[in-house]
Amino acid sequence: MSEYRIKGETGEWEVVIGLEVHAQVTSNAKLFSGAATAFGAEPNTQVSLVDAAMPGMLPVPNRECIRQAVRTGMAIDAVINKWSRFDRKNYFYADLPQGYQISQLYHPLVGEGSLTIEADEKAGIPEAKRVGIERIHVEQDAGKLMHDQHPSMSYVDLNRSGVALMEIVSRPDMRSPAEAGAYVRKLRSILRYVGSCDGNMEEGSMRADVNVSVRRPGDEFGTRTETKNVNSVRFVMAVIESEAKRQIELIESGGTVVQETRLYDPDRNETRSMRSKEDAHDYRYFPDPDLLPLELDDAFLEECRASLPELPDAKRARYIAAGISAYNADVLTAEVEAARWFDALLEAGAKPVAAANWVTSELFGALNRLGKDISESPVSPVQAAELLGLVADGTISGTIAKQVFEKMLETGDGAAAIVEREGLKQTSDTGAIEAEIARVLAANADKVEQYKAGKEALFGFFVGQTMKAMQGKANPQVVNELLRKALGRA
Amino acid sequence: MSDLTNLTVAQIRDGHRAGDFSAVEVAEAFNANVAGAKVLNAFIVETPDHAIAAAKQADADRAAGTLKPLSGVPIGMKDLFATHGVQTTAASHMLEGFVPRYESTVSQKLWDAGCGMLGKLNLDQFAMGSSNETSYFGNVISPWRRKDGGNAALAPGGSSGGSSAAIAARLCPAATGTDTGGSIRQPAAFTGISGIKPTYGRCSRWGIVAFASSLDQAGPMARDVRDCAILLETMAGFDPKDATSLDLPVPNWEAALSSDLKGKKVGIPKEYRLDGIDPDIDAMWDAGIAMLKDAGAEVVEISLPHTKYALPAYYIIAPAEASSNLARYDGVRYGLRDLPQGAGLQDMYAATRAEGFGPEVKRRIMIGTYVLSAGFYDAYYTQAQKVRTLIARDFNTAFESCDVILAPTAPSAAFGLGEKTADPLSMYLNDVFAVPASLAGLPAMSVPAALNREGLPLGLQIIGKAFDEQGVLNAGLAIEERAGFTARAEKWW
């Protein structure tokens, strides 16, 4: 059974998931002020008069933030609204200096779009799935309260106040924690390709509000709850599992789910109620009279579109068309840095399939061992292309290539230089190889008998022995050919 | 030498330039008048040193041949404009003692042009009021008195009541005002001076304490039309710090002043003829029509059919915006903080705002909060915005058949202090002629046109097309030249 179902006391349940992802826009300045946005600055050092809501201060939209949101919308194939507007969401809190958040309720910048999550049999996603995205709107972040600075007072840090966020609202199209996890990972990947958000969930650059409801398969949607500010893929999946379980147990024991806002407690792996719909705020949304409607012209949109890089789906399709396996294509395109590195490798002349295999096994393995990101790889794409070129043209074997790569990592030298210096060039000298083959077959007469009697798997043993005798430097293809001939099967 | 405080801005500017007197003499003369008129309560803060420093600079600049456009002209600054290092209160307890570390764009432009500041002028609290009676620092008293033998204290109008009273009493030759629904024009009319609210967006709102963002607009108040043109030229201009600022060049309004209205059409809106209105108002209006005809204009009747909905729409939109704009006064970062013993955040909000806002401000915050609430938003706010669109359309249609519109500024002369405080609605009705141009964002000015039978000044309002301040000023000048309004309040203070 491919569909995700939760078994309750009274039968099977389906979970319905929608996500609102808040992604911090990559920009040097805040959405409506010139203040800086760097993470980790001393409290209240990145606060302009506007961010502190001093009397008479006015917001002015930051063009770069709008541009990034438009490019993001284009990357999910969404409708870009050439006319949008900012609204005020009014509520009092100490981290909200203006007493309202500037957001977009009625006329968001980006309308309907979608993204595709790839099939992942192991994770329980049997086939690729399109997840609808209802809208992306742009809004201000709030500041941060600090409760641990003083025994009886709370302090406020306004560094985040006014930072630009994109709120990316999905349709309730996901049906399992795995799908939700894949959605967040895919969205993060797209944002990082576009460069509109660094996707850093630990620093809070990306966080999700998770809407969960349960129903009998095929029934109408159930009542949903919203769990706020979940800040990792793992937690998103955990929230869905625990919240779905809670709702099912509640319904099956005769209760009803109430529409409410909940918080996730990672230590206890459970959600708890924050406030119910009844005590929900009346935000008194209305168009912000300090700001004119946002009108985008064609030249601006054209510039946004032209600046988009190749996106993960297109890149993946290109890799697959070049013969790369779907699995490798997924691995290579997931992170923009890896994809860029791989593209540079292809550009330097490496053959796609061999390059993909080498990157996903050799390079990733080595980086993992060294604890380095691909951006810190000691071997450059051009150096790697040289190494793969030596394998492709038969200068060295794959086995020798591994040794050469180790030396490259150690010394930083080029592949050809190492091969030359260490005398690792493989030989296609048939005379020398034939001589070794003769010795190997003579020394293993019993196995030759077994082979001839039909135990064909032994062929690999003879190849191995021959290669070993040649110290790995024999051309494996030539070895194969000569062995077959010698064993009378050529 | 004649009294320097009787000079207009143009006369001070030109006389100083010609060497007839020094700027310091001018500043000292006005400082003395300010010091002698405390009973009028026109100023919240007096800044004689600021005026003298600017005057010294002006005299030095004259000697060096580096005069600026308004060198030597001291002015009053409505206490809604943030002034660097000088207390800025919006006439509220909430901001009592608040000293900005920044300067509003408009005031900065005036200082850059050479003006000096005589002080921060009183106003209705957060610019909410039509009589200056909502100020936390006490009401301003108009220098005018009825010629009825009594000496009832009269309202100087509002919200720019400190500005109007100070100019009428010769405490300053000119002042800044702000106009959200008549706050420049109505006090100008009540005190026999001129004032213009330019097209919305002409003057930057940056650094002006916000009342209703979509309506607030700064403008000058002065003794005559020329002075308004001079000051507006300095105050106006695109400001990248205000997203609603007009990105247009500032015309040379003073140089293009002309009272010759040949070929111009003046519209008379029939909906502004109110039943039961003071006959002196109608008489002044008719006299104004005759003056504009005399200046060469053709007079046509026009219709602004949605006029009667303007005031209700205004008293939804302005409070709605105010309820949100004033949310920042919460006791957290600046201004008043009332933190009762053991109180939490919500208690601090409640105590601070209860203490820091006066009754009229609270009334408008509550009205605004109400009209924006779920379930009422469409019935009030959305409906009011529709009315606003219709009113703007009324004006557009009317301006197809005329160049400017002539109407009274206010439905009455100045009323007595305390006469309307018990009835907010009758106070709001005072804005009936002023509010439509505010809702439509159009330039409009008031010029003194006559005295009523009690000897109090009455003002005529000229409303122009968007961006046509010149047309408004020119029609104002035509009236000014013909009305020969020279009356001034007799000094009793």
TrEMBL record, chain A:
Keyword vocabulary terms for this entry: ATP-binding, Ligase, Nucleotide-binding, Protein biosynthesis, Transferase
GO biological process: glutaminyl-tRNAGln biosynthesis via transamidation; translation
GO molecular function: asparaginyl-tRNA synthase (glutamine-hydrolyzing) activity; ATP binding; glutaminyl-tRNA synthase (glutamine-hydrolyzing) activity; transferase activity
Top EC class for this record: ligase
A Pfam family of this chain: GatB_N
Role description: Allows the formation of correctly charged Asn-tRNA(Asn) or Gln-tRNA(Gln) through the transamidation of misacylated Asp-tRNA(Asn) or Glu-tRNA(Gln) in organisms which lack either or both of asparaginyl-tRNA or glutaminyl-tRNA synthetases. The reaction takes place in the presence of glutamine and ATP through an activated phospho-Asp-tRNA(Asn) or phospho-Glu-tRNA(Gln).
Protein name per its UniProtKB record: Aspartyl/glutamyl-tRNA(Asn/Gln) amidotransferase subunit B
TrEMBL record, chain B:
GO biological processes: translation
Entries under Gene3D superfamilies matching the protein: Amidase signature (AS) domain (3.90.1300.10)
InterPro entries named in the record: Amidase (IPR000120), Amidase_CS (IPR020556), Amidase_dom (IPR023631), AS_sf (IPR036928), GatA (IPR004412)
Keywords of this entry: ATP-binding, Ligase, Nucleotide-binding, Protein biosynthesis, Transferase
Domain of life: Bacteria
Keyword Transferase: yes
Name of one Pfam family that matches: Amidase
EC nos: 6.3.5.7
Catalyses which reaction(s): L-glutamyl-tRNA(Gln) + L-glutamine + ATP + H2O = L-glutaminyl-tRNA(Gln) + L-glutamate + ADP + phosphate + H(+)
GO CC aspect terms: glutamyl-tRNA(Gln) amidotransferase complex
Active site: K78, S159, S183
Domain Amidase: 26-473
This protein's record includes keyword Acetylation: no
Gene Ontology molecular function, alphabetical: ATP binding; glutaminyl-tRNA synthase (glutamine-hydrolyzing) activity; transferase activity
Family assignment from sequence similarity: Belongs to the amidase family. GatA subfamily.
Purpose of the protein: Allows the formation of correctly charged Gln-tRNA(Gln) through the transamidation of misacylated Glu-tRNA(Gln) in organisms which lack glutaminyl-tRNA synthetase. The reaction takes place in the presence of glutamine and ATP through an activated gamma-phospho-Glu-tRNA(Gln).
Subunit structure of this chain's protein: Heterotrimer of A, B and C subunits.
Name of the protein this chain belongs to: Glutamyl-tRNA(Gln) amidotransferase subunit A
Organism ancestry: Bacteria, Pseudomonadati, Pseudomonadota, Alphaproteobacteria, Sphingomonadales
